[in-house]
Every structure is written in structure tokens, then in C-alpha cells.
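ugh finaly. both done.
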Amino acid sequence: MILITRPSQPPAYAERAALGQTALEATAAEGGFKAQRRYDFDSSIWLAAREVLREASYGKCVWCESQADYTSLAGIEHYRPKHRAEGLRKGEIHPDHYWWLAYSWDNLVFSCENCNRAKRNRFPVVGKRLEPGGPSGAEQPLLLDPYGTDDPSEHLWFEDDGTVRPISHRGDVTIEVLALNRPDLVERRREAAALTLSVLAAAPDPIPVSTLAELTAPRREYVGLRRQLLERHQLRVGTEAAAEISVPETVTIVPPDIGAVWIEKVDIVNFGCFHELELRFSAPGEGYEPWIVVLGANGSGKSTILRAIALALCSEDARRRLAPDASKYVNRDARASRGHVRIRFNQGDELRLEASRGSRHFTVTGRRPEFALAGYGPTRLLPHRTTSTSHRATGPQLANLFDPWASLANAEPWLADPRQVPPDDFKVLASSLKTLMSVTDEIALSRRSGKMRARMFNTTVDLDELSDGYQSILALSLDLSLAFGGERGQGYSTENFEGMVLIDELEVHLHPEWKMRVVSDLRSVFPHLQFVATTHDPLCLRGLQPGELHLLERRDGTITHQQTDVPPGLDADEILTGSWFGLDTTLDPKVQADLMQYRNLRLAGHGPDDPAVADLQHGLELTLGSYTGTSLGRVMVEAAGELVAEQAAPAAAADTKLTKDQIKERLLAHARERTE
């Protein structure tokens, strides 16, 4: 890390930031988080800042000095988080900090995705935080500011092996918050250090100014490390080098942390119904973790994937309860006597779960980082109030993924208890739950006498009186809040939860409108959770990003896999009849049979006056006219149907343009008739 001069604010950014700030101030005036409202941040505003900040840092992350990927919004981070700032203590959350600085030019930094992931909303300070809306100079941050006045070399000491040690309290906090000793970064710094030292060793004495300038040029990676190596080298070879180099004492106050843990890849070999399967998570987006959504027919292995991941990641005790006979998971059609699941983490760790024929016990090799996990099957309604929250037999929720009759934990008494969830934490959680329930800000969640209640549609009801759709969403989100927040002492700011969630049949109990929003809403509320979900519903594919959809197909007894994306803008019928679902048509089977009979009669020479043809045509016009979704769609079906009826045989390729022109003319004619 080195000091960087902040560039001037572009006028285009200032204009858009002012508009965004006005919207945030309106939310604050309505009560902000205390009124269970979420601040809506317009990420497109930061696009105008990205290139200017990138050039100022020579394309490097200002925190770790690695070349940053600026092809996405992951290049923009906030020194002070947009909201829900975290302190050093577990569960320490400040929900109103620092929304008013979300668009402030002096609060934006250019950062790599790994530092973004590690930092999240963490921003420790000494003493009291700013009053909402107050000036940034009124508090004492512990995180070093690359654009500030503090020289990072006074807080960070880089070793020849690529590690960095804290030599001040602020340095200690900065290393922990940004995970500056994560293994991949340490290795890259070690290589830079080795190259720098080799150049210095081969250079003449005195070292040419041009060599020094090239080694420490700001555009190069890890200049902070190179400068310290150069200073130490000059002390060693100087005429007064007899004095021993003074090595600052390490200052360690914060527990060491190698940063957030996430999964990069899952391999399944001869396990369950799979011979070989590889699932890779795509790169993270702006402030959120990537998903994997698995699409496939019944019997294609979707649930097997979820259970394989769960068995690999859970504890030994949970594994014995969930799968008492490991031999049943070895692929029956494979010649091999063993099957395995291998999971690779971002820190370079790998975990391998192996099952063998003739053995009821799994074998696990490799190191499992601390990693929170929850899994859910298709049946996930709110449990009975008598269900206890005091003990989960399998740790985090997994039993429901293996047993559809296993109840979810009854999180309601816990979350409804002010002693367990303080009032401010409850308001933060309520605003997140409302987003998932797709309800307006005027609707409020409350708690009384150990129960949570919802004020909606001009009445107040208990949660178990809500519809199955609401219950399904609430059961999932409440259980996640307990598993990733309350039980881990992490508080109830859902944006700060980390780990993995496995969900079978994401679409269960959801209204079509919810299905189209469920991925986007869950991603918004739980941005740092990795989701692996299965679905049969084309509407649930809305909101997926490139690289997140995986298709399973069973062909000749073998399951094939491919990563494939759905182009934006397709409707449900287009998705269903495309390669993702492979349906020939979405028409009712009887309508499809009538269309084939009509076509065959016309091709056989029967004219429109033939009673059978006329009867079929009349029935088809009534059916298609009644069930096509929009008035425009009905006009198109009528026009195309008439044209096909007149031409009988399908158009040749050379006649495609003529056919389209004829349909357009027929559409215009129908439109004129309807307006006269």
C-alpha cells in the first residue's frame, strides 16, 4: 500500500451523485432503518468514477497493489461503507452508517474484488462514530486510507517472504480487515520480492538511478514492498552498514484473519448418479457472491449435487446422522469401487470426501476452513411453534435437505425476544425480510409476547396465518438469520452473512411474480452468501448473471452437464421451448393434436369449406384467441394462423422474408379492424 493523490471529481459524476444523494436523503427523512426502510443505492452512478480512479492508481488496487479487474463494478469500493457498518466486535453493526457518504467523491476507492470481498462493510473506529450526516473528520478510523495523509510504511512492514506485519494498531486492523496476508497475495508479493532482490544483487554499486526508478515506479505492483526492500538493501551495502537494521516490533491486537472464505469449484466423481461432474463458480459481481442454479428434469441429479456438497462440508457428527451408509453413494454403474466429492476454496485449500463400496463410513481428507453452511429441501414452511430452537442435531440447517419431513428450526421465539435481538437489530432484519416478501415500506413487522406479526392489507396477523408463499420465504429467511447471524454471534445484518446456502426447488410455493424476483431479492438481501439452487421453473432464471446457470440432461443413461446462459429478454415460452427445457411446444396437448390434424387435412387437399376443416379452424381460433396472453399476442396468432391456413405447406427458406411481410400486412389489417 502506498499513498495516492486523489484525482479531481469529474463533473459528470458530481451531477449524477447529487441526484442519488437527494433520493437517499428522502429515505432518511422517512425514518431510514428505524422505519424498516432500506436505502436503495444506484450502482450505475459509480460507473462515472471508475476510470478516473483506476488511472490515478495505475490500474492497481489501492489496498493490496495488485492489478485490479476494472471490467466490472467490482473496481469501486467505499472507504466508509454505504450502510450497516461493522466494528471489530462480533455482531457490532451500525445500520445508519454511512449512507450519506455513499456518493461522496472522497469516499470512493479503486479496489480489487478480493479486497472488496474481505472488507465488506467493516470499518472499525476509535471512540464515537460520526453523527449521521456529519463530516468525516470528526471520527478516528482505524483503517488506513490510501488517499489520506498517513504513510502506510509507518504502519506496515513487508517481509522478504511476502508476508506483511503490523507495526501499529492501525496497521494491525488494516491487515485483518483487508486480509492482506491471504495466501495467493503473499505468494505474489514473495515473487515480487525475489525478483527485486535479484535485481539489486546484480546491480553495480552505486545502483543506477534508472534501476531504482524502474524498481519503484508507481505503476508497478507492490511498490510499498519494493521500497522497503530497497531501503534495507541500501543499509546493508552502505559504508555505514555495520549498524544492525532496526526491525519494528509487531503490534497484534486483532485476532489474525486470512479473509473471507468462499468456494471456487466442486468436482463430483462416481458419486450418486454422476460419473464425472465439474461445477465452477463464476467471478463475483459488484458487491455480491456468484450463484449456481442447476436446471434439469426429474432424475437428472439436481438434488444429488446439493447433498454431495452438504456431506463434504458438514461435520463428522452431522454426516453420520444424514448419511449413515456411505456405500450407497458410490455410483452403481461405475466400475470404480470409490466415489468422491472434492471442493476447492479460494485460499487454496481442498477438501475431499470419499465413499467406498463395502464401507458405511466416509473418508475426509484436506483442511476445511471455518465455513458456515445451511441446506433446504422443497418443503420449507414455518415450523410449529412448539419446535425448539435450542438445539440443531446437525449443526446448521441440513436435515431438511435430506428429509422433507424434517422441520426447520423455530427461529420466531428467538427473533421475537428483545433480549436476544435488540430493537435496532430487529429493525434492520425487518427491512431485509420485507424485501424478500416483496411488500411495500408501509407494511411493518413487529413482535409481541414472543411472536412476530405482520401489519399488511389493513390487518395484523401472526406469521403462521400468512399464505404458504409468504411462509416459505419467511421460513427460509428466518432460519438463515438464526443460522448465520444469531447462532454465530454475527448480528442480524443479513448483508454481512457469509457461507453457503443449498436450496432444492427454489420456486416452491412462490407466485409467478416472486419467482421472477427471487434470485435478485435473495442476492440483494444476502449478497455475501453463495447459493447453489435447483429449479424446474423458467421464471426463476430471471436475475441470473452470466456463468451461473448449469443444465443437466440424461441421455442414453448418462447425465451430461453444460454451463449455459439465458439471453436477457426471453419470455417463459421461449425459455421452455429453447435448449434449456427442450419442449417442442407449450400448447395444451389437445390444441397441439388439433393443429396437427388441421395441418394434415389441408396438406391432403381439404379446403376451408370442408366441414372437418372448418370445425377445427373455428375451435382453434376460439382456443388460441382466448388463451394467448396479450391482445397483441392474440392478433399475431390470428394473423399467423390465417396465413398458415391459406398456404397449407410450410414456407421454404427462400420465402421467409415474404412470409414475414405477409404476417406484418395481416397484423396491420387486424389492427385497423380493431380500431374502426
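ok and the 2nd:
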Amino acid sequence: MTCAQRRAPSVTWHLLRGTWRLLVVFVVLAFLSAGWAANFSVSMFNNRFVPADLTIRVGDTVTWTVMQGNHDTVSGSSGVPSGVWNSNDQYRRLMRIGESFSFTFNAANTYPFYCTPHWQFFGMVGTIRVMAPNAPPSVSIISPANGSNFSAPADITIEADASDPDGTVTQVEFFINGASIGVVAARPYRVTTNNIGPGGYSLSAVATDNANATGSASVSVTVSGQAPAITSPPQSQTVNISNDVVFTVQATGLLPLNYQWFFDQNVIVGATGDTLLLTNVSAADSGVYTVQVTNAFGSASASATLTVTNLPVGTPPGITLQPQSQTVDAGMNVTFTAAAIGSSPLSWQWFFNGSAIVTETNSSLELTNVIPANAGDYFAVVANAFGAATSSVATLTVFAAKNDFNHDGNTDFLWQNVDGRVRLWLMEGVTRIGALLLRNGRPAASGWRIVGTHDFNQDRNTDILWQHNNGRLALWFMNGTNFLRSELISGAPALGRPWRVVGLGDLNGDRHKDILFRHTDGYLLVWLMKGTKFNRQRLLYNGEPIPSRWRVVGLADVNNDEQPDILWQSPESSIVIWFMNGMVPTTGPLLSHLPRLNARIVGLNDLNQDGNLDFIWRHADNHFSVWWMNGTNRLGAAEINGAEVVSSAWIFVAPKE
């Protein structure tokens, strides 16, 4: 470092946004408040100061050292001392070679100085300009007030006031729990974040001035969760003595939901599910049955009456409880319940789309892990020796689409712009019926890109997985098309920049989506997940790399064996599928019988809901099409949204399963 260089603290900005950015801000503020000072040197040669002019800040120290001849340093000009400093006060003579004099500047000003024996004839003069330290901007959060409480889902507007005593405020950036939610360059400094879920939140505002100094302020708020609400209460029933009875309830609310059943206000031990089964009932079982549903934010209850009769011999059956139509997502469990009276014994038979379900001969019908093939009409016939009765028809609707943000049963398309904005196409098959920007068009922070979608927290909403350029992963939790909050995936190893997410799929059969990575050198790695939590990791393919010319399109079940497969594509549009058995691949086949396109496969999904994975293509002219597939065989093709050309700035990011 030369004598004219200023020594200043160095801060490595590992991340420009989020929690690390706030940490760096606090560190810088600590340096400023501590009055960080620097030392500068001026060498005194024959007839000159080197350097002759310096610009420093208040609190800095300048040291003059004689390198040749005999000299002094005196504040002032034209041989007239100003009285600020004078090396003769220390030495009582001119300084000699090797001797030094130091002075610390505590006030901003311009200070000329000179050497007494050499200023007039040799021009041995100099100037020190002392700059006042840059004062950081001040910022305060106007609203919400510290300690405010909101009801979930909450829309919170954060407004700040910022000013700078010696410059201008260039921006105010807002954070929620350390994650950036927007940057505002001019008044009013205000952002709105929508559909915030339950929990405690730190809302922060960081103001930056024209000298890149920062000031921050924060408040804490609470969002209270959604208490349970019963959407389908248990139904009152009248049944024969010795019959079985099933009460069911459906409820919404923030998970987990807890259930407890009561009989005439007394707890039924062990009855803690959404279904209550009573077997071989007697007159003593007649009464009021109540279910209470609770979570961390409240409770709801509903009651139904059971009447147990002992009818005279010869009474034909009569339906007293009709099964109810239901609409559910694929993978859920469904229970249809009916009840009847009549002379015992009563026999039951359930029907699906007019055909008897041979094994279903009870008053209730339970379907587990339903799929689209289970959708249709259900009814029951109850009979005894004196007649029969048929229940009303209950229709089961199963929404099977993945990446269905608005819950209409159709797969939606998700896009990310190069500027960070996220757009959703609401689809009906291959036709766009609507479009919207997520988070009101507010872009994601720089360096983040979408790498997948899935319902990670099992609330029946599609969430969005992001990866930063440095390898970190984060989730956007969604409520339909509304952003709730973001959360980093914690507890996982730091993989770094070379590893990129290329697919999501349940590779170990535990019903949790795992994350597939690929290294720039071709290696494959899987993170085995438990919901949003990292469990462990494992290299695939015995740790051998795959040539980089082969691109992973995605991870999806091609051959309908309920195991995700890895789909590859080469630059020449060749397609290869790795059929997976857990985490063990069977390499091949090369789908050489398929036509070659000047296009890339960018998405995977059963768009026509025929139970087969379809291929979504992006063509060289930026229009999109789909191949209707049956396993590895192409059945046909269709243009997406009338072959609309989409700007290359918009990247197709989902669906890919």
C-alpha cells in the first residue's frame, strides 16, 4: 500500500439479499459507530512533500517522515502558521532524517501546510482536505405498529419513512423474516405482501443512501392461524338394533387437525379420527354424538343423533341416511355412508357406475388413495327378506391434475421471466383460459430460479421450489394462486454452484418428494426428503458421471409402475428413459421410433388425464406443443394455446411431473 492509499475495512458480501444481507448491514453499522479511522503517510524529501495533497476523513491521522534533508511541517500558508499543528512544538527544531510527526484530524476542513525553510523558494507546500464522515440514512417503519396482530391469511402493507442528513436516500428494501419482498426507489416507501400464513414475523426496512451507507428498522407482528371449520358435519341416523353405524366429519383449518368424539357429552376413548364406527348397536347407543375438531388456533364442533329401533317382523328396508357427493384431490381417502331401518338382518351392496362392487357389503364404503378412475356415481342397495331400498346416487369427483394452482382439475403452466417475475397460465387442457402474475408482479430476488413445484407441506396447495445461483434452496408456500411466505430448506448440506436441481420425485417410496440434482460434471445426487426437511443424500448410478451432452428433462413415471423415471434428451432431440426401481436405474431405451423435432422437451404431465405422461415441447420459434403418449409410444400431438408464440424472456418452469 502506498502512503496515499486509505486503509478501510473489508466486508465480503456473500449474499446480497435475505438474512445475510441484514447481518452485513449490522456489521457495517457497527464499524461506523465505532469511528473506524485510517492512517496516512507523507514523506518529506528535498524540497517536496510526497504526496503533497491528501483527502481523508475526520478521525484519520497523518504522519510526516523525513526521508532527505531537514524539514518541518506547519499548518498554514505563505509562511503564516494557522496554529493547527507545528512539528517545531515537538522537536524545537527542524526534523532530521528518520524523524516523524503525527497529527489526528477531528474536524472537517481544508488544511494547507508548508515547510518553513523551503516553501518560498522551492514551493514545498501541501494540502489536506478532511471530509466529514458519511452519516447513514435514518429509517422508521410507519406501519404496521410493533406487536400488531393479523388474522390468517393476512395482507400486510409495510410503510417506512427514510431520510438522509448529508445526501439522498436511493432505495428502501423490505424484508420479512430476512427474505426480501421488494425494493422501492422513491416515496412512498411501501410494499404489500399477500396471504401471509400463521406465525410470528419480523418486518424490516433497510434504507440505502447515495454513498451506499445503510440504516435499518424492524417491527414484529403476529398472524393468527385459521381455526377449524366443519364443512360436512355428521348426519343423524335411525338404524336397526344390532346394525353397524358410521359417523363422518369433514373440516378445514390450519393443519394438524385433531378430532375427539363424544357420546352425550362424555369422551369416547380412542375415538380421535374423522370417522366414528359403532358396531352391533343397541338401544343404549341411542343419543347425541358430538365431534370436536381443534388446532392451535381454535375449535369447532357438530352433533348428530342416533336412534336405534327394534322394528316388528316383516318391516321392509327404508333408507334413513343418504350418501353424499364429494369432490377430492387424487390420493385422498373417501368414505360414503348410508343407513337404513327394517327387519333384521339387513344386507348391503354398493354399486359403482351401475355395477356391483363385489367386496363392498357394509353400510359404509371406504375408498383409499383415490385416482381419476375412481370418479363416478356410487349408490347402495339395502335388502331383507321383505323388500329392498336403493339410496340416492352420490357422485365422486377426483381432481387428478398436478400443478393445479386454482383447483379446477386442470394442470396450470408456470413461467419465470429473466427479470424475476413469475406468471401463471390457468389452463383447460391445452387452452389458456386466464393468466396472472404471482405476488402482484413483484419479481423474485436476483439469482433465484424456479426448479420445481409440489405440495411440500401437504395442505393441498401447489408450492414452488427455488434454487439460488450459489446452490441454496427455498420454498414459496402458496394458497391457491396466492403467495403465503418463503422459507429456506434448512439442515441440508451446502452443495454449492455446480449442483443444479433437475427433478422432483419419490425415489424411496415414502410418499415424500425427493430432489434430484445434477453436477456440471455429470454426476447425479438425490436428497431424500421428509416434506420440507432434508433427511439424507445419495449418489446415483454408482457415482459415475453422465456425458454433459445429455440433459435431464425431468423425473416422472413414464411406465405407470408408480415409480418416477428419469427422462433424458440430447441436442439432436434423441430421447432416452431410465426406468427406475427405487434409486437403481435401468438405462435405456432410446426412443428411436419417435420423430425428431427442432425443439426441446420442457415439461412433463398427464395433460389429457388419460393416466399417461405427456411431453410438452418448446419449438425453435417459441411456440409450444404436446405429444400425447402411451408409455413410450406417441399417440398424437396438439398445439398449446393455438401455437401461441411466447417471448424467449419467459422460461417454462412447470409442470415437470
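summary for the 2nd one i guess: Helices lie at 19-33, 88-91, 119-122.
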